[in-house]
Amino acid sequence: MTPPYRIAVVGCAGRMGRMNLAAIHAAEGCVIAGGTDQPGSAAVGSDIGLLIGGKTLGVTVGDDPVALFAEADAVIDFTTPAASRRHAELAAQAEVVYVVGTTGLSDQDQVFIDKAAIQTVVVQAANMSLGVNLLQVVTEQVARALDADYDIEIVEMHHRHKVDAPSGTALMLGEAAAKGRGVKLADVARKSREGQVGARPRGEIGFATLRGGDVPGEHSVIFATEGERVVLSHKAGTREIFAKGAVKAAVWGRGKPAGLYSMRDVLGLTD
Ligand code: NAD
Predict the structure, then answer these.
(1) Are 33 and 72 in a shared domain?
(2) pLDDT tens for each residue of 18-67
(3) Ligand 1 atom nearest to 13, measured from its CA
(4) In whole angstroms, what is the distance from residue 69 CA to residue 74 CA?
(5) Total of domains in the chain
């Protein structure tokens, strides 16, 4: 009999952390190898089963990531850019499958993820849901089919606690649109507008950010020209979709060669 696949969660007391624990608990052939949160978090020392609203599991939330990475076959990380830098280093050392969903990473933060992928399997995606990854594929195709007479605008809305803007998903969709159009996002992106900004330059890819309430994530990619608009949208009704995707990625990564993979690889959506 194959031993259960041991998946751990860093930042396990967070909104996504708890969802990730519950998704591992529900997944066949997988067990929760443990969880950490940052030192001083009220969750440290509590039973993980109780944290996800179930029975006690006899595994408590820790604050030592080194011990956690040594224990696990795979680790899921939805935390902060600073924490993910450290977690990426530990994943490389322990050679565990590392699934990272943290957004708002700077280019310097990304270097840590890229370095880890030389040593171990890393699956990174700003959005782990099937729907958004499909939207990414379709966005690229539509952007390829329509010329720059179609203005591309990306609108997103998230809950009031979100700390980065535009969302990682909005940027991911922007990258897809830019790729379809054969340009670099950095050359054409307008991440916000305020005041006397002047007329819209042809070829710009614009972003608009809304924040409020408990919205898990809504994204629309708009292609607007004189006389018509094509609107591609995704609405997340629950964070469960991201957690299920993260566990799917962790399981998919088992036994794969070291490298940096995306959710499109996991879902078989790459061309
Ligand atoms: P959150 O603030 O609820 O959770 C983050 C958790 O990380 C907290 O419990 C915090 O204490 C913990 N943490 C911070 N530093 C730590 C450290 N050094 N060690 C261990 N734990 C640490 O935030 P959230 O809403 O769960 O989102 C987390 C991240 O995931 C954000 O970047 C968000 O944008 C991203 N996210 C990604 C996806 C996706 O599909 N990729 C989906 C939703 C959210």
Answers:
(1) yes
(2) 999 999 999 999 999 999 999 999 999 999 999 999 999 999 999 999 99
(3) 9
(4) 8
(5) 2
All residues at 6 or more sequence positions from 193 whose CB lies less than 8 Å from its CB, including other chains: 206, 208
Tell which one of 9, 80, 261 to mutate to probe ligand 1, the residue whose CB is within 8 A of the most ligand atoms. Answer: 80
Longest dimension (CA), the chain: 67
Residue 104 lies in a domain: yes
Question: Which residue has a Cα nearest atom 13 of ligand 1?
Answer: 11
CATH of residue 91's domain is 3.40.50.720
Structure tokens at 25: 């608990």
CA of 143 to the centre of ligand 1 (A): 31
Ligand 1 centroid, distance to 28 Cα (angstroms): 25
Q: How many whole angstroms from 200 Cα to the centroid of ligand 1? A: 35
Among candidates 174, 110, 262, 177, which has minimal Cα distance to 271?
A: 262
Is 25 an annotated catalytic residue?
no
| Domain range enclosing 87 | 5-124+239-266
Residue 39 lies in a domain: yes
Q: What is the pLDDT of residues 56-104, one digit of tens each?
A: 999 999 999 999 999 999 999 999 999 999 999 999 999 999 999 999 9
Same domain for 58 and 139?
Answer: no
Q: What is the CATH number of the domain that holds 166?
A: 3.30.360.10
List residues bridging with 168 in a β-sheet.
none
pTM exceeds cut of 0.90: yes
